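Subject: sequence -> structure tokens, single chain

Hey, anyone have a minute? Need the predicted structure for the following. Not urgent.
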Amino acid sequence: MTDATSYDVIIIGSGAGGGTLAYRLAGSGAHVLLLERGDFIPREADNWDPEAIFDAGKYKTKERWQDKEGRSFNPSTYYAVGGNTKVYGSALMRMREADFGAVQHHDGVSPAWPIGYDRLAPYYAEAEQLYHVHGEAGTDPTDPPRNAPFAHPPVPHDDRVERLARDLEGLGHRPFALPLGLRLNEQDDPDGPFLLRELYRVNGNESFDGYPDLTGLKADAETVCVRPALEHENVTLHPNTYVERLVTDSRGGEVKEVIAERDGERVTYRGDVVVVSCGAINSAALLLRSASDAHPDGLANGSDQVGRNYMAHNNAALLALSREPNASRFQKTLGLNDFYFGADDTDYPLGHIQMLGKSNATQLATEAPRMTPNMALDKMAAHALDFWLTTEDLPDPENRVTLDADGQIQLHYARNNTTPHEQLIQKLKSMLGALGCENRLIPCSFYLGKTIPLAGVAHQVGTCRFGTDADTSVLDVHCRTHEVDNLYVVDGSFFASNTGVNPALTIMANALRVGDHLLERLGVAG
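Reply:
Had a minute. Here:
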């Protein structure tokens, strides 16, 4: 193509899906345009300032969505180059092999995926390499088969987390090193100290989970994919570009134009292939906004499935109080999957437990009563052990993304499969005494979004599910829409079920898989 606004591939969104896909297509013969609604997050002191992050919400979107009752809320989401990976905790786990099949849960059946683990396994391995995943094969009892060990050794535990691991083993459990995507200093100094931990020690608090990374050591999509992709002449990035709608030909079979606003001006782009990767909520909203005579209910929505089956996990951020002080400066290194597929007293899955980044007094102050003394918050933070618990939620067509009359996003979500989540919490609580903690767990919502649980959208998936039946899915197995030949979706929208682990690595691996398909479709070298 010769038109300055025409490209072989247009990718909308630069996060785990879009950023990874751009990396895959970089250096090929395809001319690729990456459109991002936000801008680069500057590296500045506020990146690691808990007041700026958790109190002021400096980098979080200020836009408002609505719940199904029309009540307004501020979603905990980030529009930036790299998307939500800029603030993720970089826990990068493969789906379990059984997750690709139908799984019976307390509230119903989690449906099978149209592809098996074997189709994604080589791309998982590649994504782990790309995102610098540190882990230890063979320690997680639910880990799926691997053809090779992790490329990087696990991040070492801080002393208090090491004692926690030993105590869990003493109870007969099998804690494992949590797979984490981050760039350590192995190449420069293999035997040297863990650099981030030392920096956090100097800074006075851990600033990883929920923070942008001041150092560039977090393996987010901007750092490991977008910036390297931009070193190739065939990849162009347009930040600060909001895509308003997609326009098809008269019969509705092919996207012809991408209508956007860039730095306050209307611009039209054209691409042979258009890939939507705005996050499961915004991708569905974009397709719904792109309704036309050929697609009256939304683009590629003849099945009425666009926006439906929204899932976000049953998540809980819980704080335990260690009897001894917890001086950890990089706490998020341990996981526990012993209850993933069930327990001695249940025959259905409960979920996954992992450590969170170490909380500090500033974060706790956002939750505490206004007159709580600083001394009390400091003491609580000094003894805090922070846990993240995840239980799968199930696809429900009534849990969905819609648009109101003004085009504003409306998110309908009723929690399901909550009984096993409460049981998982009780499993953790029952162990606290033996783990050197007080026998109570304190909920912390600063990781989830403070307004209402609906605002916690970090694990958003499912709104354009893939499948082989065009009547019950939006995408085919290559994540191409059934109805529009040149339109793909590569964020978490494609998930048929949510499983019980963080979705990021699966989104990344799938983007690499779709990238190979696109290279073949376009007839260009990768």
